[in-house]
Amino acid sequence: MNRIPTLSYVTTFVFALSAGTLPCVCASFAADLTDTQPAAKRSKSSRYAPGTTMASDRPARKDAGGVEEITVRSTRRTQRSSTIPASIVALSGNTLQTTGVRDALTLAHDVPGLMAETTSGSANPRYRLRGIGTNDFSANMTTAVGVSEDDVFLDSGASQGVPIYDLDHVEVFRGPQGTLQGKNTTAGTVNYYTKRPTNHLDGYVRGTAGNYGRLGEEGAIGGPIVKDRLMARFAITNQDFSGQYHDSYRKEDANGYQYYDMRGEILAKPTDNLSILVKGHIGRNKTDVELDHVGLLAGGKDDQGYAQTSARNLQNNGRSDATTRRSGLSVNAQYAFAHGWTLTDIFGLEWNHFNVFSDDDASPAPIDYQENIGGVARVLSNEIRVASPQSKKIRYIGGVYYMRNLTQSYSQQPLYSPVDFGAGGNASSFNINTQDAAVFSAISVDLMPRLTLDVGARFTSETRQANGEAWAYATQAGSPYNTSDRVLTYINTNTNTYIDPATGSAISGPTLKKTFNRDSEDASLKYRFNSNIMGYLRYARGFRTGNYNTYVATASDFSLYNPETLTDYEGGVKARLWKGRAQINLSGFHYDYDNMQVTILQNTGTHTTNAASAVSNGFEFEGQVRPLDNFLATFGVTYQDAHYTSFTNASAPTPFNGGNPVNLSGQPLERAPRVTANLLLSYTLPVSFGDFAFQTDWRYTSRYRFQAWSDATPTTPGALLSSAQAQALVRNAFSQKPVLMGNVRVAWHSLDKKTEVSFWMHNITNQLTYTNAFGEFFNGNISRYPGELRSFGFEVFRSL
């Protein structure tokens, strides 16, 4: 396999640091200019005077008996979520803990309109917001929902499966966030913020036990090392789960997981105006990913005569495990100038390796269609920005960003040879070198006492360079993943070799180096009707970068696709009512999607092309109400009509339409349910020895499909799918029917609130769900990924 070139991290960091020198100088100069106003004049201000920090813009607080509001930081300032002109969901770490959210996948249960799924374990999620996301599962995938952890953008998909523990809060921003967050955030962002070290000694331990072999330990401790100057925090989690399904072929439990993760943080404050936060983390996630089998022939059988007899009894005879390792180091340094300007430098270094084995035919049949895919990514990033004081009439944020991503993606498919399919194997190994440089700026102006204009823009220049090879090999019976016995090398970028395996003829390959220059911008008007009610209008445009297809089954699959662009028009109202006992948010949006990237899973391999345009129209209505001091209701409803407006030549697996294109114009986008709804009810009952908390939370999701083509009506179907019954089976197997899932939790808290004992049950109605599917049509079956069933357990928590 090709080796990943060595990365000169020192050179990269010096370059990014030097690029930030100019903003630093400008900040100091601007600080002097903004302070020329006489002190007496500056002190005069009315309640809504321009340049003042209004009550609605200050960091969040909880009104007496009111609902809690999270202070968000993804805007590069600390602001109350109700004052930001965007559709936002912010959830505290405590809320996520009580609703059973433990990782990136289960987060979707708590956020209306957010969808999450994976084909390789919870450490490699694929998010969708407002119907926008990706179906690509390769190591080289580009996401539409950006993910960051403590303001470090996680460019590699395998790093985005953030385990949720010792978390302060999470922020989900809907709509393009390209100005401050950068590329690949066309659908929005998910931003995790861990608990930071403080000047007070605190910590906790938590133990979990449940059915299906669920055992978990979690803990954290933090506090001062040198009072006011040096603080630290360390947290760790370890979780085991045997799985809720059974593999009768292997005679063992199936679809369980085991993962651990740990992080350490040191916060230094050598002077009153300088803080340096250093964080390191390391973890591993190993998940069993066995597949459900749907036969397309009579009696539910496939071409080899196998039929699955029970939804919970799987029989996979090939390897079916996914392992992801991730680690990282970040440094967040902030200097506060005397006049209120701040200079921030965020350096991040992330590494991950994910490796997935899949028994593709989901059966114990002797002809075993299986595969191994994976990759290694090394990502370095550095952002330097300056920010003006928030108390001025004109407020500014600007800076520079640099990122370098070296990703190697590989695959081995023992029976998927493009030369001798069903007998020989197919393998590939590609390296993608990405360099990204950007400059961004955002300004807020108080046009009138109640009216504020926010304008931002970002220019990104990104260069991608590819090299690698793909080859057919002779499969060895006892070692199917040994690819050394090559039959035909049909791609070799170093020798400019591109051969059509079917004919042996030479074909042309893609350009191996491409630079994309793109801009993102946003503008919003915010009007404050009073200190508790705000309305806004927002325009935003973002892009998802171009990339290479590296999960190949033939030479033509290795190709380059271009960036896509999404334009968002939206408006909304946010109101904090009833003396802080209610928070109501309403937003509506219209999306225009141009040059849309669509990933189609073929018979073997995937292919992403710029073949479509689409629109999405919808709204979100969500809020919190606390009618009594000890009763809280949280709700959310989203509606979206996301569909292709022009997609006349969509590709599909050969049997679906006889190898001919499919017209998907007017069809809904994949994984875009029209309606999602969330409801949480919590009641606290005080007793003489503490209190009991009763909580239930529910999520409704309307029907959605897994693949772009699966609901279309074929005009020239192959023999396998020619009957109406077979086509209906495809539509059902490639979709998730409407589902309502709920959890319950009962907890006792001690009088000092330091001890908690809780009992919980998840998926109390025991709904059988599926998260994805793909067609093994050459074997006469469809393979699906089953979801989690009902589970229960208890937890014991103790804090210092």
Automatic annotation (TrEMBL):
The keyword Cell wall biogenesis/degradation does not apply. Residues 82-189 form the TonB-dependent receptor plug domain. It comes from Komagataeibacter swingsii. GO terms for cellular component: cell outer membrane. Residues 39-65 are annotated as: Disordered. This is TonB-dependent receptor. Coiled coil: none annotated. Keywords: Cell outer membrane, Ion transport, Iron, Iron transport, Membrane, Receptor, Signal, TonB box, Transmembrane, Transmembrane beta strand, Transport. The keyword Ribonucleoprotein does not apply. Residues 1-30 form the signal peptide. Transmembrane segments: none annotated. GO terms for biological process: iron ion transport. Its main location: membrane. It is a multi-pass membrane protein. It is found in: Cell outer membrane. Belongs to the TonB-dependent receptor family. It comes from the Bacteria. Residues 299-724 form the TonB-dependent receptor-like beta-barrel domain.
